[in-house]
Design a protein that fits this description.
There is one protein chain. The protein has about 100 residues and is an alpha+beta fold. It has one domain: YaeB-like fold. It contains 3 helices and 4 strands, in the order ααββαββ. The chain has helices at about 1-10, 15-35, 60, and strands at about 40, 50-55, 70-75, 85-90. Strands 1-2-3-4 form a 4-stranded antiparallel sheet, with helices on one face. α1 (about 1-10) runs antiparallel to α2. The protein starts with a helix and ends in a 12-residue tail after the last strand.
Length: about 100
């Protein structure tokens, strides 16, 4: 998430980076609370119990006013009682090339 912060701060400003971080935190909280939420998507092609969640779906709950969030949280439920985040990817990235092999 540090790279996302740095890019946002350089492209926009610190305030925007803070608000985007708040949105990311809200999205991660939403996934933690309900990892199989209806708005998440399963991805068996990426691995056992791998799911994705667009952070844009947490936009209203975050109250940040971010207009067009473009990141996706990719996570697994493979570990008992834990949501394990594999990556946070920009929606233009090919996920398969950025996910762990196993």
């Amino acid at each position: 998430m540090e790279c996302i912060w740095q890019w946002t701060e350089e492209k926009y400003d610190v305030d925007q980076a803070v608000r985007y971080q708040m949105l990311l935190d809200q999205a991660l909280d939403d996934v933690r609370i309900d990892p199989e939420r209806p708005s998440s998507r399963p991805h068996p092609e990426w691995g056992a119990q791998v799911r994705s969640y667009r952070i844009a779906l947490s936009k209203r709950r975050s109250g940040t006013g971010i207009k067009s969030p473009r990141h996706i949280v990719v996570y697994t439920l493979e570990y008992e009682d834990e949501v394990f985040v594999l990556r946070i990817l920009h929606d233009r990235m090919e996920a398969q090339g950025y996910l762990p092999e196993d």
